[in-house]
Amino acid sequence: MDALREIWEFFSTAMLRGGMYSLMAVGLALVFGVMNIANFAHGEFYMLGAFFGYFILSAVSKLGLPVFVPPILAIVGAGLGVAAVAGFFERTAFRALRRRSKGQWLMNTFLLTLGISIILQNGARLVWGAKYRGVTRMWKGQSLNQLLEIGLPPDRLIGFLIAVLSIGGFVLFLNKTDTGRAIRAVSQDETGASLVGVNLGRIHTLVFALSGLLAGVAGASLLSVTPAFPFMGVMPLYKSWFVLILVGMGSIGGSIVGGLILGFLEAFATTYLSNYLGSGSQEFICLTVIIVILLIKPNGIFGKSVKSAVE
Amino acid sequence: MTNDAAVAERPTNEISPPAVHASASPFRRALGALGLSPAGLAVMLACLPLLASLENEYWIKTLTTALMYGALAMAFDFTSGYIGIVNFGFAAFWGLGAYVTGCLSYHLGWGPWQGLIFSVGAAGALGLLLGLLTIRLGGIFAACMTWFVAMAMLSVTSNWVTMTRGATGLTIPLLFKSSANFPYLVTMVVLTLVSYVALSRLVRSKAGLAFQAVGMDQESAAISGVDANFYKVLNFTISCAFAGFIGWFFAHYVGVLTPQVLHTRATVEIMVISYIGGRGSLWGGLAAALLIIPSMEQLKSVQALSDIMELRLLLYGFLMIMVMIYYPGGLSELFRALCRKLGLLKWVTAAK
Fold first, then answer.
1. Contact assignment for A101 to B8 by CB distance below 8 Å
2. For testing the chain A interface, which of B13, B318, B324, B327 should be mutated: the one with the most A CBs within 10 Å?
3. Is A253 helix (H, G, I), strand (E, B) or coil?
4. Reduced to 3 DSSP states, what percent helix, strand and coil does chain A have, rounded to the nearest 5?
5. Distance between CA B272 and CA B274 in Å, rounded?
6. CB–CB of A267/A286 below 8 Å?
7. Burial of A196 by CB count in 10 Å (0-12 exposed, 13-18 middle, 19+ buried)?
8. What is the pLDDT of residue A120?
């Protein structure tokens, strides 16, 4: 039974983490692929999502709605709120930069996102203080309690489901709707897309907001695992960049797989290797893996000729 | 395209400063060998009596910190401004230098000066290793890889408690016996000058030309017979070694080290200063640090704003965004443009 429990523990951790890493990485890959922006404020979108989710959740739970409603409202609200913030930054900062110059675009936007990240981190600290705000359980209810009794933490299960649903919905949107096609067209060729009548400015704002939405959903749905804190964004940012480098930049499908790979790697390291390597085993394993992969395939696992887009 | 737009688009490309020819006087050539322009020398000489007359311990400390960040920003700019690679794990090399001398003195009882060579060596060696591994990737790949390694180093220093004492902090003997801050300021001034002269001599050497060529267009440089990877790794190693050098001073200046030194936040702070100063100028970062850090300290002393650390950092972020949008060339480019308008360019350019 113990072995079974360990295996279950391993899988649930791996799936939950992997799903969330995928969710984060997909947004990052989208922005990089379409707008050629290396977004280092992505972790702060996650942080904002957690804060928004927390405040909505604590406000809505008092209303006495059915138990499933408050977390759903919190996650949706957090996603939309972060999307608005992300859209705002795209409209102001990036648009201003785009209008002024296109030289050294990748570098300048990278530094711009760093500035945004500083502002969001310290703004959050100024407004909400350096305090952890979390909940012990997001999803409550009779049927879920039964799940818990047989050793399935409902928050993890539902967290993974949310990741799958969001990514699935996002991929459908990208492939099946006109707007999604327009986004893909812009990522392939900006000039061509604008020639056939795609409104570039609108697509850019939408893409940035969409990436913020995904990060916000991730932050809000993990509220019971990682409580909201102004400086919590570094880790998710690090992980999602790790995924992108691992699989190759700007590939949406690759990022989904990469997130899962990273989730399993980390779960493996914490479950089976931390006895030998101590508490830093995760970082150690991940670093080793990425170094080996970059030595064999410098453009990442699924990367082909991305290098030209990067440099 | 207007001249202004050209400047904004290509901020790093001041390869051969105009107006100062080989026919310059021996004095100016000697100055140029140190990487100094007449104006730069004048500013330095003017600062000397100011430095000597400083008595307020608080300001001495602030100035020392500012100079330290300035030196770090220069070392950072040496890589980012010349070969176009962002070392996003820069603070980790700084912290490595600090921790190497710290551990040597804590565990083996070594004196500060004995650890110096090891601090520089360790940071340089890691830089070389990482350079060989990642630099050929270029662009955002290199930035991320240096960052990943820095995160791993942060994790190691936090978790290897027997060696680094983790978050409790590693106590390190100070550089000087007396408790006065002035000797540290003098040391830091010397270190800054040494760093500046060494880095600007490097930039002006043949290797420096290769750095710039590689940074501007790697393919063209390779076609002209420049071994791009060699020069990139060389540049990266030197920059990291300098970070370790300043880390060594930092360890023996503050006396207590915590893993926070290696944090991404420290890297970002150095980066902000360096980019506000202007990429590819070296002195820009120093000037920015000397302007920003004391004025931030001054802001702290305003009654209404005291205790609001966030406000200071918010300002950093805002400044960074504004510079990136409206003047990516930074302070040094602004200064240059101003001097060009006033016809003073000759006096602010160091002779070849």
1. yes
2. B324
3. helix
4. 80, 0, 20
5. 5
6. no
7. exposed
8. 93
Identify the weakest region by mean pLDDT among B74-83, B162-171, B186-195.
B162-171
Of B272, B311, B325, the CB nearest to A93: B325
Q: Is B154 in contact with B262 (CB distance < 8 Å)? A: yes
Encoding tokens for residue A264?
């399993």
Chain B residue closest to A112 (CA)? Answer: B321
pLDDT in the model for residue A311? 30
Interatomic CA distance for residues A131 and A108, integer angstroms: 33
Min Cα distance A78 → chain B (Å) is 23
Q: How far is it, in rounded angstroms, from Cα B216 to Cα B83?
A: 7
**Could you write out the DSSP letters of every residue in B281-327?**
-SHHHHHHHHHHHHHHHHHHHSGGGTT-HHHHHHHHHHHHHHHHHH-
Angle subtended at Cα B111 by Cα B106 and Cα B116, rounded to the nearest 5 degrees: 100
State whether A118 and B314 contact (CB < 8 Å).
Answer: yes
Q: Are B35 and B200 in contact (CB under 8 A)?
A: yes
Single out the residue of A194, A200, A4, A5 nearest to residue A90, CA to CA: A200
- Give the pLDDT confidence score for residue B19 in this predicted structure: 46
Q: Which of A36, A40, A107 to mutate to test the interface with B (most CBs of B within 10 A)?
A: A107
Residue B75, amino acid? A
Residue identified by tokens 């893909």 is: A184
CB of A265 closer than 8 Å to CB of A289: yes
Residue A293 at interface with chain B, using a CB cutoff of 8 Å:
no
State the pLDDT at residue B7.
38
B118, B91 Cβ separation under 8 angstroms:
no
Nearest to A278 among B137, B159, B317 (CB): B159
B256 phi/psi in degrees, rounded to 5: -135, 130
User: For residues B115 and B249, is the Cβ–Cβ distance under 8 A?
Assistant: no
pLDDT digits (tens, 9 = 90+) for A42-96: 999 999 999 999 999 999 888 877 878 888 999 999 999 999 999 999 999 888 8
What distance in Å separates the CA atoms of residue A247 and residue A225, rounded to the nearest whole number?
26
Domains of chain A by range and CATH?
A: 2-310 (1.10.3470)
The pLDDT value recorded for residue A172 is 92
Tokens of B47: 């600062």
- A126–B311: do the CB atoms touch at under 8 Å? yes
List helix spans (H) across chain B: 3-9, 26-33, 38-52, 57-80, 90-108, 112-134, 139-159, 161-164, 182-204, 206-216, 218-223, 228-254, 264-277, 283-301, 309-326, 330-342, 345-348
* H or E element at residue B171: strand B170-171
Pick the closest to residue B280 from B83, B87, B136 (CA basis): B83
R_g over Cα of chain A: 20
The rounded distance, in Å, linking the Cα atoms of A250 and A87 is 20
Calculate how close chain A gets to B224, using CA atoms only, in Å: 20
